[in-house]
Amino acid sequence: MTIPNNANNAGNTVPAKHSSHPVLIGTAVVVLLIAAGWYFMHRGGKKPVAAPPSVSVTTVQVQSQEVPLYVSGVGTVTPNQSVTVKARVDGQLVKVGFAEGQDVKAGQMLAELDPRTLQAQLSQVQAQRGKDLAQLGNARADLQRYTTLLQQDAATQQQLDTQKTLVAQLEAAVKSDEAQINFAQVQLGFTTISAPVSGRVGARLVDVGNIVHATDTGGLVVINQIDPITVLFTLPEQNVLAINQAQLNGNPLNVVATSRDTNQSLAQGKLVLLNNQIDTANGTVQLKARFANPQHQLWPGQYVNVRLLLKDKEQALTLPAAAIQRSQDGTFVYAVEPDETTRMAPVKLSRIQDDIAVITSGVEAGQRIVLDGQYKLKPGVHIKEQAAAPAKSKKGSAK
User: Fold this and answer.
1) Cα separation of 239 and 120, whole Å?
2) 356 near 69, Cβ under 8 Å?
3) CA atoms of 125 and 250, how far apart (whole Å)
4) Long-range contacts at 345-349 (CB < 8 A, ≥ 24 apart)
5) How far apart are CA 193 and CA 112, in angstroms?
6) Cα Dmax for the chain
7) How far apart are CA 98 and CA 221, in angstroms?
8) Can you tell me whether residue 216 is helix, strand or coil?
């Protein structure tokens, strides 16, 4: 009996065992991959996805309240009256009766011209009148004599008629002299220059000693009446109909002038002019308002914001202007749903005044609207109300 060679058998069996291991390993890897894929497809897909965090916002409710109805524009402050004081006769300026920047009253003396030439002319025409009066008296006496002589047939009718003509000529000469005297007195009065209106004088334009003429264009000084004072402003032509309707009750409309920098109210006045035509070049209409100005809050040449009040009270839906958003499709707000999510709600604006948006449609009174934090929002996002910042105590603020 032949005994098998163990060494040879060992050499034959070892290679067979090593050749089967890679197949088993590969098969196991494939099975594991298929099982993992099945698990993630069927088990992992059912795992809930974490919801995005809520966005912190501040909300506000739509208010239904009474608001004034007004239109706004930009205006320029102008004097109620502006007068350039000029000399009406030629002469040398001998006296100035005002200080630059002084308030003057109507009739107050502002300047005097040398009156001697005009005084001499007045004396001359007065003397001529005296001469003509003397001749007129003598002619009237002769006329009386000729009338008596004619009754006695001692004079002719021609002599009487000639004397009557002489008397009429002298009477006309006296009237001419009186007219000359009046003219000379008026001219002499022009040597004293008085303020035609009350107001504030500006810089003196002519110094004492200069010769002034009635034809000079510059004048002596400019007087601007600044109390009361006026503001000229313009509004778009679309407002003309509303302004006319507001004026139907006959009462002048109220106007408020505010600072362009701080929006602080400067003065309150009345509308005195709605111009009778629209400027076709820019589609605007000019208006004028008059203001009492005792504290000189308004000054000629100043630019101010102007509010023309058309109606004292108007019931409307309002929101803070910061809640209004704008897109290519128009204006909208983020409305808060009952489940604390948001949606875009298109709105129509009537106007924005004093940082308050007056809304005509798109929201309802009491509806919650996002006021702050909109830049993080999109429709359907969950929100949470942001807590108000704690007020600082007086002790902390002192530090």
Assistant:
1) 63
2) no
3) 56
4) 345/369, 349/324
5) 6
6) 220
7) 10
8) coil
Q: What is the phi/psi pair of residue 108, to 5°?
A: -70, 140
Contact indicator for 297, 347 with CB cutoff of 8 Å: no
Q: Is 32 helix (H, G, I), strand (E, B) or coil?
A: helix
The encoded tokens of residue 337 equal: 């749903």
- 335, 380 contact by CB (below 8 A): no
Rounded to 10 degrees, the C-alpha dihedral 32/33/39/45 comes to 170
Q: Which of 377, 344, 255, 239 is nearest to 305 (CA)?
A: 255
Q: How sure is the predictor about 41, in pLDDT bands with cuts at 50, 70 and 90? A: low
- What mean pLDDT comes out for the span 129-143? 91
Instruction: Round to whole Å and give the CA distance between 300 and 294.
Output: 14
**What radius of gyration, in Å, describes the C-alpha atoms of the chain?**
50
Q: Cα–Cα distance between 231 and 202 in angstroms, integer?
A: 20
Residue 391: its pLDDT value, please? 38
Q: What is the arithmetic mean of pLDDT over 143-161?
A: 84
Distance of CA 160 to the CA centre of its chain: 80
pLDDT at 192: 95
**pLDDT tens per residue across span 306-357:** 999 988 777 888 898 888 888 888 899 989 888 888 888 899 988 887 788 8
The CA distance from 168 to 172, in Å, is 6
Residue whose structure tokens are 């098969």:
27
User: Which 3 state secondary structure label does DSSP give 339?
Assistant: coil
The identity of residue 95, as a single letter, is K
Instruction: Please say whether the beta carbons of 361 and 32 come within 8 A.
Output: no
> What one-letter code names the amino acid at 307?
R
Tokens of 33: 């991959």
Q: Which two tokens stand for residue 352?
A: 């924005």
52: exposed, middle or buried (Cβ count in 10 Å: 0-12, 13-18, 19+): exposed
pLDDT in tens, 234-255: 999 989 998 998 888 888 899 9
Place of tokens 């005792």: 294
> Is the whole model's pTM more than 0.85, yes or no?
no
For residue 300, is the peptide bond before it cis, meaning its omega torsion is within 30 degrees of 0? no
